[in-house]
Amino acid sequence: MKTMHDSATRNEMIGRLRGLTAETQRVWGTMSAAQMIAHLTDQMRHMLGDVKANVVPGIRQTAFVRYAAIYWIPWPKGRIKGPVDAFVTKPVSWHQDLDTLIALVERIGQRSPEGVWAQHAFFGPMTGHDWGYFCHKHFDHHLRQFGK
Predict the structure, then answer these.
(1) N or C: which end of the chain has fewer CB within 10 A?
(2) Regarding predicted confidence, which is higher, 60 or 46?
């Protein structure tokens, strides 16, 4: 399983992101490409601790559910609704928004997965390793949503 803590994986994701345009059509779901970039930006800001997530208590925060969602269970297409915090940023300028997201992706490489990481709004406390795998799975899910 790939992790965003790996430089080759980050570079692969950046390449896939750069393969998108504002006009790229979705294969499933409801977001536009610009909305998806903004959504991933929100997730990265939570992951890196730039913005504190409003943690929603619930069964999803148990170690088993968190582990299953990150490492085992494939995510269904167009059926997952993220926390409200995951849809705060609104698209402004395609190139500026994409550059912002890429800069956030590159920041992951500056942090050790062994350090202290922010909580996830649904899954609660997560290690740097959990975040690295979750982030890759999340990006991959949405890039496939747009055929990339």
Answers:
(1) N
(2) 46
- CA distance readout (Å), 102 to 11, 17, 84, 116, 119: 10, 8, 22, 22, 22
Q: Check if the beta carbon of residue 43 is closer than 8 Å to that of residue 86.
A: yes
Cα–Cα distance list, 129 to 16, 29, 104, 108 (Å): 22, 28, 17, 11
Contact 145, 31 (CB under 8 A): yes
pLDDT tens per residue, range 129-147 = 999 999 999 999 999 999 9
The residue whose two tokens read 């430089």 is: 7
DSSP codes of every residue in 24-63: PPPSSSS--HHHHHHHHHHHHHHHTTSS------SGGGSH
